[in-house]
Design a protein that fits this description.
Blueprint: E1 2-5, E2 9-15, E3 31-36, H1 38-48, E4 53-60, H2 65-74, E5 82-85, E6 90-96, E7 102-107, H3 119-127, E8 130-133, H4 139-152, E9 155-159, H5 168-171, E10 176-180, H6 181-188, E11 203-207, E12 213-217, E13 222-225, H7 238-251, H8 256-271, H9 283-289
Parallel strand pairs: 1-4, 1-8, 2-6, 4-5, 8-9, 9-10, 10-11
Antiparallel strand pairs: 2-3, 6-7, 11-12, 12-13
Helix pairs in contact: 1-7, 3-4, 7-8, 8-9
The chain binds adenosine-5'-diphosphate.
Adenosine-5'-diphosphate (ADP) binds next to helix 7 and helix 8.
Length: 292
């Protein structure tokens, strides 16, 4: 079982011929709402990859809450620990032009109110094989979840996104750190390879876009795993597909190299489709890319 403690947003997306400059109004075209947030996306990714998944998070007391709840539930994610808090849901206001250039403002809303874990949250974490967190909720809440997992022997997978520095005490409780090159650079304070982060955490998985992923651990194991070659049309959520699938493979006790190869296939499968959470692959699609 995988428990995700993290963010949920509703993305409000409008396309326009050009993006407005400050003070300017442009007439847009299509408007869509898309459930997002790294936490919710990775929970959906893990569930579609075949994991048993529960999501701990918060939505607001508004019309944006139900679409987020429905999106998680319809992917098979257990939402019994998803709370509704006073105030607005997390939203991302996104404008996209014809060149796919975008402007994004994120209002964390309910995600910022996820400051305290309940007893049922802690019990779920303690009973899980893997805890999966990201950094779009208060970092103190991440620390509470990670400490609970550590005490219970639940494996902690931390996707350190969006990029920021973290207290060494928090990183010391992480079992598997998942980062891209930018996030690794921020954590290390300089451009970094996976091995450069092993003074902070015992295992590092670094995603490398179309090149796949690299791995290093304190037992001196080093791996470079190529991603399956695909016709990529939209890499939105590829990182979330990768991380969700990795958490599932880890919870299943698969060998590290298998787990990373499978996660790469999940990211690659996601990149072959347009969309964010809608492009997250199901287990059969991931297996198919690997020819199994
Ligand atoms: P992020 O968006 O978080 O920086 P990446 O772009 O590194 O994440 O993508 C995550 C994973 O998705 C990669 O490790 C890779 O396995 C897969 N992936 C992403 N883009 C491609 C691509 N163009 N072709 C094949 N696989 C891809």
């Amino acid at each position: 079982k995988v428990v995700v403690v993290g963010s949920a947003n509703l993305d409000l997306v409008v396309t326009a011929p050009t993006l407005p400059r400050a003070g300017e109004t442009v007439l847009g075209e299509a408007f869509t709402t898309v459930p997002g947030g790294k936490g919710a996306n990775q929970a959906v990714a893990a569930a579609r990859a075949g994991g048993r998944v529960a999501f701990v998070g918060a939505v607001g007391h508004d019309a944006f809450a139900q679409p987020q709840r429905d999106n998680l539930a319809s992917a098979g994610v257990d939402v019994s620990l998803l709370r509704t808090v006073p105030g607005p849901s997390g939203v991302a206001l996104i404008a996209v032009d014809e060149q796919a250039e975008n402007l994004i403002v994120v209002a964390p809303g309910a995600n910022a109110a996820l400051t305290e874990l309940s007893t049922p949250d802690r019990e779920a974490i303690a009973g899980a094989d893997v805890l999966l967190c990201q950094l779009e909720i208060p970092v103190d809440t991440v620390a509470q979840a990670v400490a609970t997992a550590r005490d219970a022997g639940t494996v902690v997978v931390l996707n350190a996104a969006p990029a920021r520095t973290l207290p060494a005490e928090l990183l010391a409780m992480v079992d598997v750190l998942v980062v891209n090159e930018g996030e690794a650079e921020v954590l290390a304070g300089r451009p970094a390879e996976p091995g450069d982060l092993l003074d902070l955490v015992p295992r590092v998985v670094m995603t490398l876009g179309a090149r796949g992923a690299a791995y290093a651990d304190r037992d001196r194991q080093r791996l470079d795993v190529a991603a399956p070659r695909v016709l990529a049309v939209d890499t939105t959520a590829a990182g979330d597909a990768f991380t969700g699938a990795l958490a599932v493979a880890w919870a299943e006790g698969r060998p590290v190299e298998d787990a990373i190869r499978w996660a790469c296939a999940a990211g690659a499968a996601c990149a072959t489709k347009f969309g964010a959470s809608s492009s997250l692959p199901v287990r059969a699609e991931i297996d198919h890319l690997l020819g199994v």
